[in-house]
């Protein structure tokens, strides 16, 4: 089967950073689906792994953790899917990625694809939707009651992949006042289109930006990028006993700054359930099923920012380069081999 992989960590402008190769087709385990990959999307985790994880023993390392495709075969213990089903999922970081013609994945972290979307539009959703859902409802424990309007959420990096779906979830399913951050006119317009009540510029001091729009403090913060840069401002912006959630990887993080206000810290990593095969691992199947229903109902929309064409090494290198530039809006998708 065709696949895109790397053999050593290299800058993305090096043609060897991602290469077109051939690999044997994988065999599904008892709870696995064998999926024909129709479309993928690219996430910051792809670039982080490529830069920081050297393949072992000279083997090719395949990236890719966002898929829409068709089930070709199922393992002996599979009960949620059958051959021919259209599915979407984010996969497991502990297994081979999905930048390949065929992929295996545990059924417990897979959802039936939204009926109203094509493969490319569906591929933009799984990783960011699961991350945003878990961050908002499992980590920050926000109520799914639209009538509960006494709380507020600041989303730092609201125009990115996770921010684009988190903004929609918070606006459509909760009573939160949603404030997104974006630094460019184009991305600010995108965040407003997604439903944010207000947008502020994270290149400016956040507390001052919030005061400019008449908000003294917020009860919740979802920090999706540059948490170490913004930490002091986030602590200032949060109300006493507020909640700070994050998904990025700060180089340093002084938790003592949270003490004076009794702020709680919540880290979201959407691979935790699959990495440790937690008893509630199948909750990700439930989340994706709910997201598909919300998409088909018109409550949520796909977050495709750009379509980069077919799935090959050259186009994936372009996608990685755009993500590393920090200028991506929404999700980058690729489709077909």
Automatic annotation (TrEMBL):
Keywords: Cytoplasm, Metal-binding, NADP, Oxidoreductase, RNA-binding, Zinc. Its main location: cytoplasm. InterPro entries: ADH-like_N, ADH_Zn_typ-1, ER, GroES-like_sf, NAD(P)-bd_dom_sf, Quin_OxRdtase/zeta-crystal_CS, Zinc-ADH_QOR/CCCR. SUPFAM superfamilies: GroES-like, NAD(P)-binding Rossmann-fold domains. The keyword RNA-binding applies. Residues 16-334 form the Enoyl reductase (ER) domain. PROSITE patterns: QOR_ZETA_CRYSTAL (PS01162). It is found in: Cytoplasm. Belongs to the zinc-containing alcohol dehydrogenase family. Quinone oxidoreductase subfamily. Homotetramer. This is Zinc-type alcohol dehydrogenase-like protein. The lineage of its organism: Bacteria, Pseudomonadati, Pseudomonadota, Gammaproteobacteria, Pseudomonadales.
